[in-house]
Amino acid sequence: MLTNRKFVSLASACAIALAGATASMAAPDHDNPSAILIYPKIVVDTANGVDTRLHISNASDRPDGVTSSDQMAHCFYVNANSHCSNTGAVCSSFLDCDDGGVYGACEPGWIETNFDIYFTQRQPIGWVASEGLAGDDLPCRATFLNPNPCAGLGSNGGTRIPPISETPFIGELKCIQADSDTRLPRSCDNDVMGQECRNDLTGHAAITSAALGDVASYRAAGLENVDSNGDESLIVGGESNVNAEYEPCADVLVMDFVYDGAIDPVSQLFQAASQLTLVPCTQDFRGTDVDPVVAQFLVYNEFEQRLSTSRRVDCLLDTPISRIDTTQPVNSIFSVNVGGTITGQARIRGVGGGLAGVALLGLAVDFQDPSTTVAWAGYALDTAVETAIDSPDTISLP
Questions:
Q1: Residue ranges of domains in the chain
Q2: What's the pTM value of the predicted model, to 2 decimals?
């Protein structure tokens, strides 16, 4: 039997190979500093030792002061848990809503929690989702006795990152580079010297499992500011020099994957078991409902034979890939029994809006039972096609 270290190495190698396979198709939005960061998957389950470590960095060399009033991030946790109508407990189906033999409905819902992060020059900040970060835990917290704790580079004063609101938790995180006075993006114009748009944020997440002793990491998707007008309605994509404030989200994402149920060639014991998470780019943080996005999947095996399916994405879709199209994983178009090859590629098109996504490649004793997972690795999905200029997304801030 392989050691856990070898499980991690194998899963990580597969994830790196899959993530890199589509790099030539489009420039990924995960490496360059940006003004909007999207973390599609935040998971916390303290009972089972699962948590998410989040990292966000300020790439700017500018010192703190009047000239760097936009060296802060206005962030939003989105809680995508469903809850029982009778007990209020977190649920995945009505079977979780048994209250003395009476079953309630498992109702979907999404609740946002916003917070601010103030950066010093070139500063990375990290925290654990279940714990948050504030007070004495901040690396550069100014006090009366020590007003300049980081040698003139500024202070993290005003930063308070709350812990997630409940466990278990599934959701996403969006962070927008903003002006510290208005908590809105600073008005900018790349055509006017001295008013250039700032893109200083980078980030990544690591989903940790104490039971596996393993980590699934991915880079946050980034969207660059191209021409912000400084108001609370952020136009993501659209026609350049007319209404676009940020570069477009993905109209088509590419996921290279190992078919669920394919046997690991090294151990000859474990099966591939992958998960997919998708979130819409359009979001209204004022509490107003927005139209769902339909994700259309074109799935190709190694012989370029094609199958297709679709799935609705409301606030967040998080699912094993072999349950995207069916409740019987062995019959899924993402199953090795149907695909007929070891690896495949899915082109995921958003109808009704742009998408961002992340995938986790796992090894399991039985791919139909996520509890038998022995190792995993994460990777962000590549952008193959950006949203059309006449179909921008909108992020509405409170």
A1: 4-396
A2: 0.89
